[in-house]
Design goal:
Blueprint lengths: L2 E6 L2 E9 L5 E3 L4 H5 L19 E4 L4 E4 L2 E2 H7 L2 H10 L5 H13 L5 H6 L9 H15 L6 H27 L12 H10 L10 H13 L7 H10 L5 H13 L6 H14 L4 H9 L20 H17 L4 H15 L1 H5 L6 H11 L7 H22 L40
Antiparallel strand pairs: 1-2, 2-3, 4-5, 5-6
The structure holds acetyl coenzyme *A.
Length: about 425
């Protein structure tokens, strides 16, 4: 096996080199501190492999994404979301019989406990649905404790997949003040979600095949993305042996941020702002380039993709097709395309390898489907569930799993004697500001 050499304070150390299936190379630093006394410093973990994983492969330079070896383009075109859940969680494409059994289970567990349903009443009407989803998923552990035994874990995985869609739809109904619509066992995962979101007791609701296909595509494209911020959070929490529901709830919270899954909501807010400002997208490109302006082009840039995000390529085409099928003319799609065009030709974006990411076009499709802006990140979370679950499962089944516990380089004060309060002097320093109401 190849090794890597490190010269530190005149001493030479050797470390094993690990090579993945796709020839990606890593220096195994597990023994770095033990042998050298030093640690690696990598804020934001841009160079750190936190695990070895068999689930998802990304080559950011070439714009490649594969689930369990299958290219995203093929999966997106041919697979149902349930199939992708099965593939990611259990490691292989299901046979028809396996898929039927899985579908039946995920369908039959979609009711939530009536006591849990009452939790919704406690949230204010304008509570963000991401907050509600995270709290509700954490609350599932109050109802389904289980043990770490395989059958309990498998059942909790099914419960989580099944109930998350009900919780997501109910959080929307709560936000618009409409009566809750219960799940239906005769519908597929995506159909049932649309039904719980959009049906009202006063009239029949027909599920549009266009919406069904679009939703399936969106969920499939978001299903996993290896060690991103929310997935790493799920693994971090899971490494303390916290239960599945708690780990996923933490992942939902991590996803909410605008630099991660929350970007899909921010993209639409940005496009709305540009539209309201007369559609001058060039002005916003210039703002994004201005180092003194905190404005960023939302939906642009990615830590890993440095050429193109294959999910964005698929979604750009899908956005055109869905809007045409629905007969929707969305001026924001035009603004988005113009913005992309200008940015892709501008040296600032070219030099920094900034391209549209998955969130750039997803919001346009969600909007055309009638899904409100504050639900976009919830939709992302629903799609990402099988990824989080499969990563959590892989972690907890690893016999060498250790609790995640990074180190730090301490840059604070050296040891100093404690000063009793009566001896402390006023010093000129920045004080925290508190708003007084
Ligand atoms: N608009 C303008 N400039 C940008 C943008 C952007 N969207 N993204 C990065 N840059 C610039 C930075 O200012 C920096 O410039 P500098 O080198 O002159 O200082 C350079 O590009 C590198 O940016 P970093 O922030 O260091 O890149 P990082 O890999 O840490 O961040 C991130 C990636 C968070 C996605 C970033 O590109 C961003 O904030 N994008 C907008 C938010 C977004 O769309 N998030 C969704 C990501 S996809 C997902 O989570 C599903």
């Amino acid at each position: 096996m190849d090794t890597a050499k490190l010269l530190l304070n005149g001493e030479e150390y050797e470390f094993p080199v690990v090579v993945g299936t796709e020839d990606e190379v890593a220096v195994d630093c597990t023994k770095l501190r033990g042998t050298t006394g030093a640690i690696s410093l990598d804020p934001g973990y841009g160079n750190t492999g936190s695990c070895a994983s068999t689930i998802t492969f990304i080559d950011g330079e070439k714009g490649i994404l594969r689930y369990r070896g299958y290219p995203i383009e093929q999966v997106a075109e041919q697979a149902s979301f349930e199939e992708v859940c099965y593939l990611l969680i259990y490691g292989h494409l299901p046979t028809q019989a396996e898929l039927d059994e899985f579908r039946a289970l995920v369908t039959h567990h979609s009711l939530i406990h009536e006591s849990l349903r009452h939790f919704f009443e406690g949230f204010p009407p304008n509570a963000h649905p991401m907050m509600v989803l995270s709290a509700m998923v954490a609350s599932l552990s109050a109802f389904y404790t289980g043990t770490a035994e395989e059958e309990d874990v498998n059942l909790n995985i099914i419960r989580l997949l099944a109930k998350a869609k009900t919780i997501a739809a109910l959080s929307y109904k709560k936000s618009v003040g409409q009566p809750f619509i219960y799940p239906r066992n005769d519908l597929s995962y995506t159909q049932d979600f649309l039904h719980m979101m959009f049906a009202v007791p006063t009239e029949p609701y027909e599920i549009s095949p266009v919406l069904d296909r679009a939703l399936n595509l969106l969920l499939v494209l978001h299903a996993d993305h290896e060690q991103n911020c929310s997935t790493s959070t799920v693994r971090m929490v899971g490494s303390s042996q916290a239960n599945l529901f708690s780990a996923i709830s933490a992942g939902i919270s991590a996803l909410w941020g605008p630099l991660h899954g929350g970007a899909n909501q921010k993209v639409i807010e940005m496009l709305r702002m540009i539209q309201a400002d007369g559609g001058d997208f060039g002005k916003y490109v210039n703002m994004a380039k201005d180092k003194d302006d905190p404005f960023r082009l939302m939906g642009f840039g990615h830590r890993v993709y440095k050429n193109f995000d294959p999910r964005a390529t698929i979604l750009k085409e899908a956005a055109d097709a869905v809007l045409e099928e629905l007969g929707t003319d969305d001026p924001q799609l035009e603004i988005a395309k113009n913005l992309e065009q200008v940015a892709l030709e501008d040296p600032f974006f070219v030099d920094r390898k900034l391209y549209p990411n998955v969130d750039f076009y997803s919001g346009i499709i969600y909007r055309a489907m009638g899904i409100p802006t504050n639900m976009f990140t919830v939709m992302f979370a629903l799609g990402r569930l099988p990824g989080w679950i499969s990563q959590w499962k892989e972690l907890t089944e690893d016999p060498h799993m250790r609790i995640s516990r990074p180190r730090q380089v301490y840059t604070g004060a050296k040891e100093r004697p404690f000063v009793p309060i009566e001896q402390r002097k006023e010093e000129a320093r920045e004080k925290p500001e508190f708003v007084t109401v």
